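Review this today:
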Amino acid sequence: MKIKIIILIFVLFACVSLLSESTYEIEDLNFVHNNEKIQGKLIVPLIKKQKQNLVIFVHGDGAINYDAYGYYDSLFSKLAKNSIISYSWNKKGVEESQGNWLNQSMQDRADELSSLLKMLKSNKEFTFNKIIILGFSQASWPISLFAKDNKDIDNFILVSPAINWLQQSAYMSEKRLLQEGFSKKEISLQIKKDLINSKRIFSSTYQEYLKIKEKNSILEDRFNFIKLNYKSDMTKNIKYLNKNLLSIFASDDENIDINESIRVLKKELLMPNNFSLKVFDKAQHSLLKNEYFENTKYDLWFLFKLNILGEDAFVDGYEELIIDWIKNEA
């Protein structure tokens, strides 16, 4: 009964939101990658200019649609208020996009972004002033690969970027084990063991994995996705983000070690004067306020709170920082 009431409230709120004043209109604009149609959306400000900046949103992990189930809506609106166009798309296999995102390597995701860019540049309806690539979490890996092959794109924003897949996994394990009361010595030994096991497991077949992990095993398509990507490390490609980079972190991020990410970014960037950095307090991985959100889990309760709170869900100053950087630095 409680679930039905929450769903009803959520639907009613969504209807009210649709009736509220909008700062943009949404246009379908699809593209093709590896012979598969990708369903994309162009978020166009109601007040148009001859030349406008374009922000391309690149998703993190998961089966995410173009607006990340409402997570991007507030930023779409604020960008539009400042005459900035946004573009985002449904991941492969999500809604009307063909394919399966779990079959994609990070290089394939980078190539997908290149296919999108080629389509956008050939579209005669729009003339863009500057193009900014905005990526969230796991998007740091395909974006850094994309930057290597697309040196004409100068402006990048990374929100809570991870540097290395295995290091990120180890960090999350460490946080979990600390909460469970293990000592630092026990945690260190367990992480070393997990690292060895991960390399062994994801070098094997799914059937071999099931023999090792009979309980709490992951599904085959997720296993294959990890097998494709567990060696991901953006360190050697950070230099290609060198022209103009804004990186945003949350102080209470339990998904990535922000100190390690910041250290590596500073070390690898050849021109640190073009690097802008901001760490927000009292925020979690997705820059949502700790007082409302513990994590980014797209369940019904998460979506309900996100839609009720709107821009107030995010830590103060986060979205404004992105707008100001685009207007003044990009």
About this structure: The chain has two domains: 20-163+241-328, 165-231. Residues 165-231 form one domain. The chain is about 40% helix and 15% strand. The CA atoms of residues 280 and 300 lie 26 Å apart.
